[in-house]
């Protein structure tokens, strides 16, 4: 009996000692750095995630530009989204390649140029931010190694950028994107429109006047309709919006439109609302989707 007990204990100890331990190497987050933008005439803040092997290698890396939502800033995806933790885990598990994640501050610009051309955030992003990142960090400067993603206002920005500049991004992952149909824009409460969108698209005397030329130039649905047949596969799209999200209508309309136009994309509707819980639980799959574009 004693021998049996000792033998069982030995087996348990051996089993415990031989259980593999997964060590998750830690990447590095540099938070709230800045560079000077001549286009905006001010400094632009950004945070950046460098993968675990960045400091020990001399190689260059693909990059994902990860955009925050309305009223957030360059710290949100780390502070609330914990994107560094999820990236560390996914890299350690071999689910995504080592990548750099750039998180710029956009204030409430919606990531595009305003109707007056005074706040040219999109021009700054394309002409200054991306070149600065690729010159300052070891980032591969090519479309096939560049992805873009974001949530809410940032989801809108990621879609607009990939549609305005399909030569710049291999993949786009939009979470709970701020996409509205024309009817939603027209019927939007005046206080909501004035507070959110009038500085972007311009003031409107009547609800129908909200559908201005500048609105059309930056409407995700209009831009999708304008994609030439030969370029429908230029960017890989992934759209994810919760079933209880107030932005469900625009995201659903985008999916239906892309299906009708035979534009390849992935569409996800999970249980959830417009919240960090939803975005945290989706970011790994989003990074996997973009990471697939970095492979051959």
Q: Give the count of structural domains.
A: 1
- Classified by CATH, the class is Alpha Beta
Which quaternary structure do these chains form?
A: single chain
* Backbone structural class: alpha/beta
**The CATH fourth-level homologous superfamily:** Alpha/Beta hydrolase fold, catalytic domain
Average pLDDT over all residues: 93
Please state the overall shape, judged from the principal axes of the Cα atoms.
Answer: globular
Radius of gyration: 22 Å
Strand count, sense and closure of the main sheet?
Answer: 8 strands, mixed
Strand content: 15-25%
| Overall CATH architecture | 3-Layer(aba) Sandwich
Q: If helices are DSSP runs of H or I spanning 4 or more residues, what is the number of helices?
A: 12
Terminal-residue CA separation? 60 Å
**How do the SSEs run, as a string of H and E?**
HEEEHHEHEHEHHHHHEHEH
Helicity level, as a percent range?
25-40%
Task: Count the beta strands.
Answer: 8
Strand line-up of the largest beta sheet:
1-2-4-3-5-6-7-8
Q: Name the poorly predicted regions.
A: 1-21
CATH fold-level assignment: Rossmann fold
């Amino acid at each position: 009996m004693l021998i049996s007990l000792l033998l069982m204990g030995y087996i348990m100890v051996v089993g415990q000692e031989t259980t593999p331990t997964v060590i998750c190497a830690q990447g590095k987050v540099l938070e709230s750095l800045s560079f000077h933008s001549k286009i905006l005439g001010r400094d632009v803040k950004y945070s950046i995630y460098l993968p675990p092997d960045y400091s020990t290698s001399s190689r260059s890396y693909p990059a994902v530009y990860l955009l925050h939502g309305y009223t957030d800033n360059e710290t949100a995806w780390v502070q609330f989204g914990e994107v560094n933790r999820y990236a560390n885990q996914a890299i350690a598990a071999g689910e995504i390649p080592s990548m750099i994640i750039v998180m710029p501050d956009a204030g409430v610009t919606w990531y595009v140029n305003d109707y007056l051309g005074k706040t040219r955030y999109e021009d700054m992003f394309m002409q200054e931010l991306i070149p600065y990142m690729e010159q300052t960090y070891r980032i591969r400067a090519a479309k096939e190694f560049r992805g873009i993603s974001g949530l809410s206002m940032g989801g809108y920005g990621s879609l607009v950028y990939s549609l305005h500049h399909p030569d710049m991004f291999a993949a786009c992952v939009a979470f709970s994107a701020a996409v509205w149909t024309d009817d939603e824009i027209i019927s939007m409460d005046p206080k909501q429109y004035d507070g959110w969108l009038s500085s972007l698209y311009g003031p409107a005397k009547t609800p129908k006047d909200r559908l201005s030329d500048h609105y059309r130039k930056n409407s995700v649905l209009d831009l999708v309709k304008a994609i030439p047949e030969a370029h429908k596969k230029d960017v890989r799209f992934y759209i994810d919006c919760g079933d209880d999200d107030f932005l469900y209508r625009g995201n659903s309309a985008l999916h239906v439109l892309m299906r009708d136009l035979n534009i390849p994309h992935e569409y996800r509707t999970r249980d959830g609302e417009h919240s960090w819980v939803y975005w945290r639980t989706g970011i790994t799959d989003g990074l996997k989707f973009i990471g697939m574009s970095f492979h051959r």
